[in-house]
Amino acid sequence: MAVTLRSIETAVPPTALVQQQLRDVFAAQPGLSRLGSRLASAAFNASGIERRHTVLPELAPGADTGPTAFFDPAAGRLLDPSTGVRNAVYAREADALFTRAAAASLAGCEGVGAEDVTHVVTASCTGFYSPGPDYRIVRALGLRPSVQRTHVGFMGCYAAFPALRQANAICRADPDAVVLVAAAELCTLHVRVRDDQDTVVGASLFADGAAAAVVTGRDLGPAPALQLDDFASVLTPVGEEAMAWSIGDNGFEMVLGSYVPHIIDEHVESALAPLLARDAALRGSAHREVEHWAVHPGGRSILDKVETTLGLSAEQVRPSREVLRDFGNMSSATVLFVLRDVLARAAAGERVCAMAFGPGLTVESGLFTRVGSPVAGTAHVPADATVPAAVAAPRRELLGAR
Q1: 118-176 pLDDT, tens digit each
Q2: C or N terminus of the chain, fewer CB within 10 Å?
Q3: Active-site residue, 109 included
């Protein structure tokens, strides 16, 4: 039985941040030393990002919001609210991103309606509330109250893979299952001003966004999809302290060591080996023989290392670089943005290898095969786009101008 990933859709908040403008704001913060300011300018300039999105409109230059808990526009100063204040915004704003991405995905999946969904799997690491996003999606989309729900929490940038593995296992156990998978992250809620390199690099990379998809073993006809072939999870022998995520009194604290790209450079081939070795068609092949790659764009240096170490072409890494350029690093949702673009580019029968890196250091990967007919590209859904009352409405009603 073939299990397929269908109708990958995305949502971003309406406030877009231009990287150069945000760089100037961050580098001018009074809490930074002269060295910290220079480090901030260098990190923002080297990020490979042109724009990203946030649920905090006050962070956009010229925004007429008045003083908030996060930013004092008169002083141009980023503030340091408590974890409770940050999480309260997460609880309010995450619902919109989760439900809009999920609604768009369900609406775009031909042959599936709200009444068909049997399971919901959600992923997020940037906030907590209960009843959580899995519950909110069921209520907002009018799913059956008997829908089974799972939330993958606090696993970081690779969490979309455990969510997809769970959906795959559900569908293989129950061929009639329809699993709605959604990931949403509000990383900008945890931006802080510190002189240390981890904090500065994190501030230069992270953004807000959501993505959702339908996973099912049902035969839904020739609509374009990604067949889920296999997954692998590998812990590198080093790097436990190089990438970590903890809860502090003033937000979640990210450790993103400068050595991470070197760890990936040294261990990405061995981390992929178990996945590729299980596929007879790829065993012993050069990595570039896999036509398409969906690499989580944790940062430009990480993509550079993956491209060079695996011998990939610039074209194979292009979808990841374009998502990084236009949306930044949205943690768990980001690789679904890349897979969405790959689905639009790939031809039937072509293979796709996806991977993401996270705390541990953990390397999660998956193999897919493009099946079905050609697909027309669609725009990413802004968070303030109108969602129709009927989830089964045509996709075009869900897609507003960005």
Answers
A1: 999 999 999 999 999 999 999 999 999 999 999 999 999 999 999 999 999 999 999 99
A2: N
A3: no
